[in-house]
């Protein structure tokens, strides 16, 4: 944890501050069966506004809303964490963003840990063996 106080905010100091805040709140969230993550924000030289996302998870660690959202998109409700191939790389389904109509499925590239967006058809084809796609 960085305990120095900046005289003005920079992108780096805001990221460090958000990291410290999330780290401190993890224990509180875990005690209540929740997960917490940074969700963006804005800053100027003298002020920072940060957003924090708090999510409920079931006993298996799956976001409570995931099954409903997956079903709405025509995916199996239990596909959270499913591994699929795309362009020669392996990905793990990690979430759904309904607001992104073209690429609503979020998946983590297993080799790098980076998050990518996918269309439903590619994930459906890989997870269930049906549907259109590449």
What does this structure look like?
The protein has helices at 11-31, 66-72, 120-128, and strands at 34-43, 48-56, 83-86, 89-96, 105-109, 115-118. By secondary structure, it is an alpha+beta fold. The protein folds into two domains: 11-56, no CATH class; 66-128, SH3 type barrels, CATH 2.30.30. The strands form two sheets. The protein has a four-stranded antiparallel sheet. The chain has a two-stranded antiparallel ribbon with strand order 1-2. A hairpin with a 2-residue loop joins strand 3 (83-86) and strand 4 (89-96). It is elongated. The termini are far apart. The mean pLDDT is 87.
Helix/strand/pairing class, anyone? alpha+beta
CATH architectural label of the largest domain: Roll
Percentage of residues in strands: 25-35%
Output mean pLDDT.
87
| Overall 3D shape | elongated
Low-confidence stretches at least 5 residues in length (pLDDT < 50)?
Answer: none
Order of helices and strands: HEEHEEEEH
Count the strands? Answer: 6
Strand arrangement, major sheet: 3-4-5-6
The major sheet is characterized as:
4 strands, antiparallel
Percentage of residues in helical conformation? 25-40%
